[in-house]
Amino acid sequence: MSKDISKELDLSNELGVQGQYKNWFLDYASYVILERAVPAVEDGLKPVQRRILHAMKEMDDGRFNKVANIIGQSMQYHPHGDASIGEALVNMGQKDLLIETQGNWGDVRTGDDAAAPRYIEARLSKFALEVAFNAKTTDWQVSYDGRKQEPIALPMKFPLVLAQGADGIAVGLSTKILPHNFCELCEASIKYLRGRKFDLYPDFQTGGMIDVTNYNEGKRGGKVRVRAVIEEQDKKTVVIKSVPYGVTTSSLMESIVKANDQGKIKIKKVTDATAKNVEVMVELAPGISPDITIDALYAFTDCEVSISPNACVIVDKKPRFISVHELLRISADHTKDILKKELEIKLGELEDKWHYTSLEKIFFEEKIYKELEKRHETWDKVIEAIDKAFDPFKKKLKREVTREDILKLTEKPVRRIYKLDIDELNEQIKGIEADIKQVNYDLEHLTDYAVSYFENLLKKYGKGRERKTEIKLFDTIQAKQVAIANTKLYINRAEGFVGTSLKKDEFLAECSDLDDIIVFTKRGIMKVVRVADKVFIGKDIIHAAVFNKNDERTTYNMIYLDGDSGTSYAKRFNVTGITRDKDYDLTKGSDKSKVHYFTANPNGEAEVVKVLLTPGSSARNKEFDFAFEELDIKGRSSMGNQVTKYPIRSVKLKEKGRSTLAGRKLWFDDKFGRLNSEEKGTFLGSFEGDENIVVFYVDGAYEITNTELTQRFETDKIVLIEKFVPEKIISAVYLDSDKQQYNVKRFKIETTTLNNKFLFIKEGKNNKLEAVTTEEEPVLAVQTGRGQQVRGAKFKIARMVEVMGWKAVGAKLMDFSKSIEMSWEKKADENKAPELF
């Protein structure tokens, strides 16, 4: 064989293999996408799920079947083995929608597996039988081995894929549709059919909380944050009451232990007490705040997870990425189309029934049956004679009389000739005509019929399917703020090093791995670095501390010598934003510059210092005082004000300074239950030094707490939160449930213990605080009744009740009423006396 021919053959073989590989890969990719991983838009099912439901419908006799038997029946349609069928069946059963279960089906909260298929049982739910099956409206195809017929798609009259959710990884794409609430899906379908706007947000069996701010209708690029519900049981224990979607109690506990081992949180013990409800107990290490621990659990463990939805479904045998809103619209329209098809089939059946019943009535009433008694040559002649006898009545009928109709009539018993039987046929015809009229009406008002269908689903199956996942806005937890100080920082001032490995040198502070360190040197250089084993800053370090970004209160006071001019300057500055690992020169830039005096002041304190000049200087006064409070706080790059042009021998502290900053202004954000200084929410006031906050709760307790921003407050339990002023008189109205009356009292807070709740109303079941204020002359406006029966009154509380002890029961204000509203008015109308009930 020549070389040219062999080369040509090799080339053709190479192209052939490449072409075959390309085709095979595309075939495989298409198969995985269409037949395994991605649900169809028509019924929201993957093939394995559809085949399982079809097999269960074939087996359905109202009783439970062993899962092993269901798997065996499904294998007639699904050629991928029992394991994949069993897994899909258990997954559907755990969703508690299409399949009723019996036995141990595992627990999605704890991650426990279901029992073996031979031990557990299942059957189709009433809901599944109602919405998923109708042989008359189903399109069929041959099964994989050609022996059976299986549905191409079930006639699903419900947005199933949105209710169950879907996960799947195919070749080159994936789908992740989050589950939604059953009742909300029905309501959204109704709204869409009526042309109204609707919203859809995920809802999980595992409960918890979800922030849907960036859900983006479930499309690619969206994101939801899901959190467990964590409650403070006491100052030593927090309890995790739910798990996020996709997280089990086992994996959650592992993440907590891992975070503790890494030093990000400090716990004593974690215990899983989950039974009917999720209950993971986390015991705190001594001295650790529950509020900071809760934040740290969200920041460093699986108590908070982020989920990126990616709604992909098969539309017209192609994968398509769409929103959940579009999915619901497609499903509602599809349901409407199926309902129309069912009505049309029903109409055809009714018309056939009317036609035959009418024929039967005419056959006996007009004595056409007597043609059977006449002698005809053949049976065909008998049929022809009967057909001819119907001629006068054919105009009343809705279609032609067929041979099959006549043959069927001849098989009827002759007893129909009695009047009672004729009357019964007349009643049947009237009933059929009424049914036809109703079906025609429903077809003409198809949208109303579809709306009524979804309303019926909601009524029949909505009970017990209320939303489990609370929709909330989540605050952004800064990991640095909640990270536990898990390492020790050391400093070598002379050599200019800071780090965690310098254990033979000076201990500086405890910090976390996430912290930044701010360092100042004698030369006037400032640098911010991450916590590390060993970092060089510069020789002769004069100050180092943990750096808090955007800290506008810590003020640095500094006197430095400009190396070029010999003049000394003083400056005050803050450090808020910086570039990490960059050297910042705080002097005028000369290499000969140096710092004479430096302090860091957490609240902008401005001290007085004594400046001593060198003995040989020509200055008249070689000793004088300098007050930093005379300087404005400026940026770190400012030159500062001149202190002296003469050489300085030393600068020493003479007098500690007071803060030159205004009090710290704080707000309470009731969306997140947080204090803040960013002007979010209700302004609480300006706070100096150790001033505190007082919180009044619905249960009738008050609590004095500090202004630490890491605190968490449960907003739904708070009646009032404000700055604590011990001299203020508290006016409160509460319900005494036992005596069915409202009591009023006025008192001063006499306790000083922080972070302890004190009950100031009468103790009793269902007793609760209705209204509380610290106004000097409070006026309580009360309104009772509804509609035209509304009555109102105003009470000047200060004139009615004397100031008493905080434990006092108080005086009766009025009897209890279910329809009552109370509110405070700042000032009473002096011209109008309050009307009393």
Provide the descriptors you would attach to this structure in a database record:
16 helices; single chain; alpha+beta; 28% strand; 837 residues; five-stranded mixed sheet; Topoisomerase II, domain 5; elongated; Gyrase A, domain 2
What report would you give on this structure?
The protein has 837 residues and is an alpha+beta fold. Among the domains are: 45-155, Topoisomerase II, domain 5; 227-303, Gyrase A, domain 2; 347-448; 548-659, no CATH class; 664-825, Neuraminidase (6 Propeller), CATH 2.120.10.90. It contains 16 helices and 48 strands. Strands 25, 26, 28, 31 and 32 form a five-stranded mixed beta sheet that branches. Strands 40, 41, 43, 46 and 47 form a five-stranded mixed beta sheet that branches. Helix 7 packs antiparallel against helix 14 (446-461), helix 10 packs antiparallel against helix 13 and helix 10 (324-365) packs across helix 14 (446-461). It is elongated and about 155 Å long. Residues 5-9 and 828-837 have low confidence and may be disordered.
In a few lines, what is going on in this structure?
The protein is about 25% helix and about 30% strand.
The number of distinct helices, counting runs of at least 4 residues, comes to 16
CATH class of the domain at 664-825: Mainly Beta
The CATH superfamily of the domain at 664-825 is identified as DNA gyrase/topoisomerase IV, subunit A, C-terminal
Question: How does CATH name the architecture of the domain at 664-825?
Answer: 6 Propeller
Shape: elongated
Number of strands: 48
Estimate the strand proportion.
25-35%
Summarize the amount of helix as a percent range: 25-40%
Distance between the termini: 118 Å
Helix and strand composition category: alpha+beta
Largest sheet: 5 strands, mixed
CATH topology of the domain at 664-825: Neuraminidase
- Radius of gyration from CA coordinates: 41 Å
- Residue ranges: pLDDT <50 for 5 or more in a row? 5-9, 828-837
